[in-house]
Amino acid sequence: YNLLTPEQKSVLDQKHQQRMQQMEQQISGLQQASAQK
Fold first, then answer.
1. What span, in angstroms and rounded, lies between the C-alpha atoms of 35 and 15?
2. pLDDT tens-digit profile, the chain (37 residues)
3. CA angle at residue 11 from 21 to 13, to 5 degrees?
4. CA 11, CA 5: separation in Å to the nearest integer?
5. For 6, phi and psi rounded to 5 degrees?
6. Contact 12, 4 (CB under 8 A)
7. From CA 17, how far away is CA 7, in angstroms rounded?
8. How far apart, in whole angstroms, are the C-alpha atoms of residue 19 and residue 30?
9. Which terminal CB of the chain, N or C, has fewer other CB atoms within 10 Å?
10. In the 3-class helix/strand/coil scheme, how is the chain assigned residue by residue?
11. According to the model, what pLDDT value does residue 4 have?
12. pTM of the model
């Protein structure tokens, strides 16, 4: 990871953040769906 260029690091960080946000949205969606039942 330390061998990557700053540009590659920023791209990886952005992808990681997007993935985390998607997971949070899915989790919150599942919680809401289970709460409605």
1. 30
2. 568 899 999 999 999 999 999 999 999 988 887 877 6
3. 45
4. 10
5. -55, -35
6. yes
7. 15
8. 16
9. C
10. CCCCCHHHHHHHHHHHHHHHHHHHHHHHHHHHHHHHC
11. 85
12. 0.63
Residue given tokens 């769906």 in the structure block: 33
At 10, list the tokens: 């920023």
Q: Please report, as a single letter, which amino acid is at residue 15.
A: K
Token digits of residue 31: 């919680």
**For 13, phi and psi rounded to 5 degrees?**
-60, -45
